[in-house]
Design goal:
By secondary structure, the chain is an all-alpha fold. The chain has 2 domains: about 30 residues; about 230 residues, no CATH class. α2 packs parallel to α8, α5 packs parallel to α8 and α7 packs antiparallel against α8. It is elongated, with a radius of gyration of 26 Å. The relative contact order is 0.15.
């Protein structure tokens, strides 16, 4: 679980409720069934009309990916690939077949299997790149669904507010009801803003970060597998893969390697 995502969302909600309580307001006043129906129902309907139903039904899995995604470790992936390069260099590339059951990343397994089978390097590169592009496309569609929620929710909030104002202005016989009526009318705008800025916006940004992390790992794997397949020296493989790490992580990786060698 990504603690940062959960904690961030909780802090945002608590801050809003606390500010309202400290200002003398009643959080229960924010609950209005017609406003909830307009904003949530309208947004769900718009999303269903915008995307294939199969994608809409998987919204929960997209959200789970932002909160429960597996942690990626580029440094460990580099260590694994360098280890495979050492085995291939020492015992031959066919010996990697014995290590396949212990490989945790299916993308590495697919690349190593093709290399062991003696597939053409260009074919291996093409297949792995195609799979990576398909992964990026899936991630893009999932992110678009959440971004669209962030766009439609405020719009339906405004629609609900306009509906409330029309209803209120059509019945001006009781001036004392204008204030409460205005408050209820504005609640829909609040709902839309909360959905966009507390839920859709942050989740969309987190999905973008997850996509960047996964694409980095997959690109690193493609480079490593192709380097192993071409018979590069393990140190050359390591040097190639180190370029994917930012300077800070690169120094930490080198320090750990030196410590293990000592």
């Amino acid at each position: 679980m990504d603690i940062g995502t959960v904690v961030g969302l909780i802090i945002a909600v608590v801050a809003i409720l606390a500010s309202m309580i400290l200002g003398g307001g009643n959080p229960l006043a924010l609950i209005d069934a017609p406003s909830i129906l307009v904003v949530f129902g309208g947004t769900i309907g718009a999303i269903a009309a915008s995307f294939p139903l199969a994608k809409v039904l998987k919204v929960h899995s997209i959200i789970f990916k932002a909160v429960f995604a597996k942690k990626t470790d580029a440094a460990q992936t580099i260590r694994d690939l360098v280890n495979y390069a050492e085995v291939a260099r020492r015992e031959g590339i066919l010996s990697l077949e014995n290590l396949i059951p212990d490989m945790k990343d299916e993308f590495i397994v697919r690349g190593v299997k093709m290399a062991v089978d003696g597939s053409d390097p260009e074919l291996i590169q093409t297949i792995l790149d195609t799979e990576l592009e398909a992964l990026m496309e899936r991630h893009t569609v999932g992110k678009q669904v959440i971004e669209t929620i962030g766009r439609y929710a405020p719009a339906f909030g405004m629609i609900g507010t306009l509906m409330g104002l029309i209803s209120m202005l059509s019945n001006m016989d009781d001036p004392s009801a204008i204030g409460p009526g205005m408050a209820v009318a504005l609640i829909t705008t609040l709902y839309g803003a909360l959905i966009a800025n507390i839920f859709a916006g942050p989740i969309s940004e987190k999905l973008g970060a997850r996509d960047a992390e996964e694409v980095l790992i997959k690109t690193l794997i493609v480079t490593g597998v192709m380097s192993i397949q071409s018979g590069d020296n393990p140190r050359v493989v390591e040097s190639k893969l180190m370029t994917f790490l930012p300077p800070g992580q690169r120094k930490a990786f080198e320090a750990e390697q030196q410590k293990q060698a000592a």
